[in-house]
Every structure is written in structure tokens, then in C-alpha cells.
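Thread: calcium ion complex, take 2
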Amino acid sequence: MPLSSSAGTGADRDDSGARHLLSDDALEWSVRRAGVPGASEIVQGPSVLVVEDEQNVAKALRDGLVAECCDVSTAGTGEEGFFLASTRPFDLVVLDRMLPGRDGLEILRALRQKGILCPVLVLTARDSVEDRVEGLDAGADDYLAKPFAFPELLARVRALVRRGRGDQLTRLAVADLAVDLTERTVTRAGSVVELTVREFELLAYLVRHKGSLVSREMLARDVWKETDRSTPLDNVIEVHVARLRKRVDQGHAVRLIHTVRGVGYTIREGDG
Ligand code: CA
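Output below.
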């Protein structure tokens, strides 16, 4: 099973060590993640599930992807892979086609039928046009024939994760309000809502925390980037929220932006 030399750095990763291993590719994950306006969560590489029964191949894939800062889980059978992929979300599943018991394509069809739409890259020892067509028809996003060069696998992994995350992370919605973080556009019930830069940042922050309470302190820190607590921003925030509410909620039967008296704000579907 010739995998290219970059597969075997064998670097183990833990939370504290992850940053030291950042390659250009891994850095790309971090920058993109951090580039989401206001994102303050800890930067993590993509979560990848590798379903492969051949242990040496599984290990090479794991080591290579871990070296790229991916958070890798492995499954040695189709059943185990199906179980893991249906119980937690992954940014990508790398699925070997030839597995003992239920083969890769059966697992893939079952996942798609269950409504699990995460990107799936199918690995196969066979490589014919019919084979590829069958794989794509089963719901594969991409297809790679063994033996493969590791850089090619990584390039495909990056493309698939980018596509999957792009859809998840850049378009957010609360009821009929849609916010596109990349295009920086907002629509409510299909009509464009014009916002200033600050109003957009404020709305994007609320929508990313939809259903949760957002305090004025959080807004001061993360939207206004004001860390000096002695600077009174409460009035400024109130004025901006009032304007935002007017633009987002006025003329609509259902209000989305709610004040939590004395504490802050929340955006959620429905009144109350
Ligand atoms: Ca196999």
C-alpha cells in the first residue's frame, strides 16, 4: 500500500501540542475558522472519521491527518463506522469501499437515507468508470483509487471540508431571517435588510448565539472590542439594538430580537 512519505510523521496531538504542528494546510483551517466574524471559539482542525479495515492503511491515514491537525476517529468495520457517523457530526468521512460485512457503499447509502449529509470521500481498490459512477450514485462526494498519493488525498480532504463547512458556517438563519456571513447580506422573508457595518456585526453575533442570552458585556467585548470595563457602552449598545430591531422586526408579525431586562438580548424564533 504505497502512501507517500508525508503520511508518516506520526506526530501525536493533544490539545496543547496542536498549535506547534501547524503546517501551511493546518494553518489554513485555523485562519478560515478564525476569519468568521466574531468567532472566538478555540480553533480546531476538521473532525474526520476514517472507516478502513486494513490496519496499516488506517494507521497511515490517521497519522497523516493528525499531522494536519485533523481530529481523527477510526472505525475498522462498516457497522462501527455507521454507528459513529450517525451518532456525532463529522466534517468528513473517509470511507473504504471494501469492508468486511456491509461494504462501504451500503454504509454510505444507509447514512444518506438517514439524512446524514456530511461530505464522504470513498476509497477504492477498484477503479473503473462504472465503479466511480456507482460510488457517486450512492452519495459519495468524491472518489479516490488506491494506491493514492497522500498529498492528493489531503487536497481532496481540504476541498471537501471547505465545501461542507462553507455551507454550515457562512449561512445562518433564525426563522425567516437569513444571514450570509461571507456575502455579508441579510434577508427577512426574502427581502433584503440594509444594515450598517456595526449593525451587521451585532446581528451576526446574536444569530451565532441564537436561543442563548447575549449580555451587554459580551457585546462590548466581542462586537465593540472594548475590554476596558470602565468605558460605559450600555447606552451605545441599546441604541444600536433598537435600530437593528427596527430594521429586522418592524413590519413582521413575529419578533426575533428580545430584550432580557437588566442583562442583555437574545434572538430566537417566536415571542415570549
Ligand atoms: Ca478494505
